[in-house]
Design a protein that fits this description.
By secondary structure, this protein is mainly beta. About 5% of the residues lie in helices and about 50% in strands.
């Protein structure tokens, strides 16, 4: 199995737990907690900032004792936009599930001067990106222009069955602004129906890294560098939650030259 593919380690509780140390990089962390009603999870941000994403279900969430009330409205990640909560550096947080809950904890190095806040559905409108069988539906949760974080970029994407996304292939592995930014990235994958699978390739121009993975419901893929397109298999819609972070909170990517014709050719 590819070292870039991380399978769920449990059916409930802490299902995924990816740290910079386990991924072998510097910036991005990702965890997924699966809870039953009345079960709780909590933590301390420490020197990191967090984005808690209610992938599915509802929860009562608090940060530093401030109760944000019950949040969430979708029961699967394929039913509309998410609720999320930004947790700044140095804060403590707690979530109590009020329904079955999948809660993602996205993390990256934090900074001073940011405040906890709820990010509600509709804060950033869903975008349709691409055309034909490259059409997908993108919802920014924490985009680079929101001014509300030091490092974190968080976005989720729905790709209909038979379509591609993160395509034409692009990369962001060079700290070379304004041409390209360096960003590590995780993909948390879900499928509808859940017995399906999708394909993801992670590769570099010189093919020193070239991995193609069949990703299943609940898998995480790591993108330390290189291009990283996704293909959703016919009959199974794909959802993924992306977490990106690097030395600067800017998403500036470089397209694979041999595939650039796709932007105008079809």
């Amino acid at each position: 199995m590819s070292k870039l593919l991380v399978k769920p380690k449990a059916r409930s509780g802490l299902v995924q737990d990816i740290t910079p140390e386990s991924a072998g990089w510097t910036y991005v962390g990702f965890a997924l907690n699966r809870l039953k009603p009345r079960e709780t999870t909590s933590g301390e941000a420490g020197d990191k900032e967090l984005c808690l994403v209610l992938v599915s279900g509802k929860a009562r969430v608090s940060v530093d004792g401030e109760d944000f009330g019950e949040l969430g409205e979708r029961m699967t990640p394929f039913e509309g936009q998410p609720y999320a909560v930004y947790v700044p550096k140095g804060s403590t947080w707690r979530a109590e599930a009020t329904t079955d809950l999948d809660l993602a904890i996205c993390s990256a190095p934090g900074g001073d001067g940011f405040r906890a806040k709820v990010i509600r559905p509709g804060t950033h409108p869903q975008m349709i990106r691409g055309k034909g069988t490259n059409t997908r539906y993108v919802t920014n949760i924490m985009p680079e222009n929101d001014g509300s974080a030091q490092s974190l970029l968080v976005v989720e994407v729905i790709t209909p069955g038979g379509h591609t996304s993160s395509y034409p292939p692009h990369k962001h592995d060079q700290d070379d602004l304004p041409v390209e930014s360096y960003l590590e990235e995780t993909y948390y994958h879900r499928l509808n129906p859940p017995q399906g699978f999708a394909m993801q390739r992670v590769y570099t121009d010189d093919r020193s890294l070239d991995e193609t993975m069949a990703v299943e419901d609940g898998d995480v893929t790591l993108v330390p560098k290189g291009y990283h397109p996704v293909a959703a298999i016919h009959g199974y819609d794909s959802y993924y939650l992306n977490v990106m972070a690097g030395p600067r909170r800017i998403w500036k990517f470089h397209n694979a030259k041999e595939h650039e014709w796709l932007f105008t050719g079809i």
